[in-house]
Each structure stands twice: as structure tokens, then as C-alpha cells.
Amino acid sequence: MARVQVQGDWVAIISALDANDTPITLFFSDKGYKDPTTGQYYDSRMRQPARINVTGNDGGLLRVMNSKSIGEIILNNIDGKLNYLLDYAFDGREVTLQLIDPDGVVTTWFKGIITRFYQQGNDLQLTLKSLSESLDLPLVQERYQGTGGVEGLATDIKGNVKPRVYGQVTNITPTLCFATSGVYQASDLPTCVIENVYDKGVQLTLGVTRATLADLLANTPAANVYDRFQGYFRLGTTTVQQITCDCTDRVSIGSATIAGLAGDVFKKICDTITFSTPRDIFGEIPVLLDDVTHKYQLSASTTIQIIDVFDNGVRLVNEGVYASESEFNSTAPAKGKWRSWQGKIRITPKDDTQYPFAPLPLGTITCNAIDSGVTFTDTFSVTTNTQAVTTLNSVGTIGLFINEDRTIRDTLDEICRSCAAYWWFGDSDEQSVYNVNQINAKLYEEPSAVADLTLYPYRTIGSSITRSATGVGENGLPYYSVLARYGKIYTVQTDVLGATTQTRKALVAKEFLIEEQADLSVAKKRHPQSTRLEFNSLLAIVTGKQIGRAHV
Question: Is the pTM of this model over 0.85?
Fold first, then answer.
């Protein structure tokens, strides 16, 4: 938790849309600050600079990065003079938190986006969330339509995720997408190259590399021959036993074409990321449907979720969500509470304390909600730090085959876990700006003798700073050994045909190769209860030096 107390003025620069959808910038501070150059005044509204927890992502390799990145800024609205902000739109827009020291030096401590803006008592709160939490989106969007041809049929592969290859993959099982013509698809990316095709271990002969998909479909290869086009290939016969293939996805860098270096794959995935966020609704007055049962409707949309309900500005207690519209119509919530069904609200007033069993009249009802079915047209992409790509490339080639639902975040996690690395949104220095427009990555390295950060008492909130000699193992001790499984065989085969080469038989008979680096003489001797770290890697080749970075 980054909670920092230093001398100077904390200021927040916040982007929003006003009630007329006009872009506007808001300026707030903790003590009241006037920029001596521009004359811009930063209103003294911030109860605290921000409570921010920013962490990297290593795919669960080590215990040091297992929490979510999130934060908030709280604005004091006890006088109600910020009520106009309830008509503003903040979600998905940028916020910058800076410290201006007594000498006028400006340091940017945080730069991110706002996910929610809401009222709580006399405060207005802006929730700040790491973009990494927003990457739980499908990496592969394309699915087979079931309309015939290479889109398959409604009776076989309709609705299945189209396969995709990153890097170099060995012995994958492609999708038979056009069964009557013997057409298979290994990847939906145009940069994919089918290297070899096998029928139960026996290598088939490459015929013609076709220029178009139409050309591939128009020509039938000879028996035991396959033609190819990008991520597709076609067999000369439909009478087969078990078809597998080896593929590469090639990345063009200058005049060179390279297959599957870890950093290039990482960047290729990051280049596909764009953001748009659900529209938050604040301070809206719902339509009264029935003044006897106190039913209201904010929207007829089925994607509306009611977050808060207020009676004359006082938040009412939420009793939950109805299971159906019929329950909404038949069952009232408890006294003084509300329940919702999609965009509808039902309220039961409290009893009047002076006149028992006589319900108090409701005042002006307002509510906050979110509509996941409506998104802003505003989107932005991210870039990948150049040094991060170079660093991950130094680890080597990876191979990733996707033929089921998988999120962008999980994929980036898996790449970094494979490389004993971690990634985050930000600049090259983890201690500096949290930058929503850039994704960075670094390798785990042995501790340096030079301090990365110096903590002083005046920079902390709390009683003291303590030191503990602990490792990152599950029992708090260092690992004595790191074992990596690499060179994945996606389709393990132990019953290949007799004509299969001995080299191929040995290669496809087990899922992974294994590399281990142990420190029995030091770590295990000093810590007899230390354990071994084991993980699966997408790397095609792993060396002891590479996995040694995780040996901490």
C-alpha cells in the first residue's frame, strides 16, 4: 500500500465530461494550492492524497505479487458545493496525482484512470483501478459461425473459439473446419506458417503453399500430401487417423523475420488492447410507477444494475436483487430498505416514530447505476515499452496454442511466468509514474547491493518500519530449487505409427522437458525446511541461468 506523507501540496488533475458532455478538467488539492505560473487554483477538497496499491503481475510465480492494484481519492463535500459533479461522467477518464514541494518541484506519483465516482455521506469518492484488472477480456474474439465451408457446420464446430498460435508450437491438434474437403485450421492469424503435418506421428509431404484461401479450397492435393495457406492446410485424403502439426507465428522486425521470441509475442498481444468502459449513471431521478407499492423505473434496459438509492440525499439500505420480475411485483423489501430488478426499484418506507405503523412519505428519490450494455465511443490503446520487449526477447522463444476461451490478462501472466518476469502498467522505473498508456515488463533478478529505494520516517504513515528475513516460498523460506517444465508437446502421443521416426516418437511421448537448478549446499543446508518451486513454462528451451532468476 503506497501511503506517502511528505512536505508540500498534493494536487489531483481529473478529466471528466460535464452535464452537457463537454470535456472538462478539474483541479483539487489537500490544502488549497495556486499555481504561481498559470494562476490555476486547486480547490482544497482532498481528504487525503490517495490510497493506492500498485502491484505487478507475474502469473502467480512468486508470492510477492498476489494482490490487486486499486486506489481512491476522497473529496470533502460537507457543504454540498460539489453536488454539481454528480451530473458529470468520470469513468474511463484520466486522473493524475502530483506532489508539489515547497520549492515548486512537481513529482507525478500516480497516473491512471477512474472506474467509479459516487457519493458516500458527505464525501465524493473516485475509485482508481489498475488497467490490468480490466484485461479479463477474451484474447481470441473469433468463433466459427457454422455457415459452411471453413466456418464449419452448426452440427460440428459452430460457436467454438478459432485456434491461434503464438511463437513456435509442437504437435498441436488443429481444428477440422471443413470436414468434407479435409481442411484444417491451426491459427486465425495471417502470420502463421504450417511447418509440418503428421498423421499419427508420420510426417506428410508439403505440396503447394497457396496464395489465397480460395486457391487452397479450389485444389485437392495428392494422397499423403498437404497444401497450406497461412494458418490453414488441406489434406489429399479425408481418411486419416490423428492429425497434428507444428507451426510458427512469425514477427517481422526490419528486414528479419523472427519466430516467437517472448518479447515480440508479448508486444503482439499488447498491441491488440483497446479500452472502453461501462457508463456510470449518477444522481438520476427514476420514474414513479406506483405510489402505493413505491415502485420506480430508471430504465427498461436489461443491462442496468442499480448501485445506490437515495431519499432526499440520504442513502437507503440495499436488501439485494430480486430473482425475477414476478418477485419484484409480489414481494416488498423490509421497512427502510430497497431492492431492484434490472432497471426497476422497489422501496418500503420507514415507519413514522411519532405515529407507529404509519409509513413516512418518501421524498425525492435518486439513484446511481451502471449500464454494462452502453459503452463510451472513447477508446484508447496501449504501447509496450521497447526495453521490456528487448528484455523478454533475451529469454528466448516461446510457444502458445489457444483453442479455448482465454483472457488477455491470463495470457500476459503466462508469458511472464514462463520467463520468470513480471509486468505492469507504467514507465521503466517501477517507483515512478503509473502510466495507463504503456505496459512494461522486467525479469526477476538477484538482489542488488545498491538500494532501489530509501524510506525515511517522514515518508511513512504508521508507527514504524520493521525488517524480516523471509523468502518467497509458501512457508516464508527461500526456495532451495527451481524446476521448470518447458518445450511443451500439446498433443502427447505414445501410440504413433510404426513408420514414425525414432526422434519424433521420443519427442511426442511426454508433455514437457525438465530443467532444474538446485542449491543444496547453501539454501537447503541453511534452511532444511525450504521447498522447491515448480512451474510450467511456454519457453521452447530453458537454461539453468534462465530459471535461476526465480531462485530467491
Answer: no
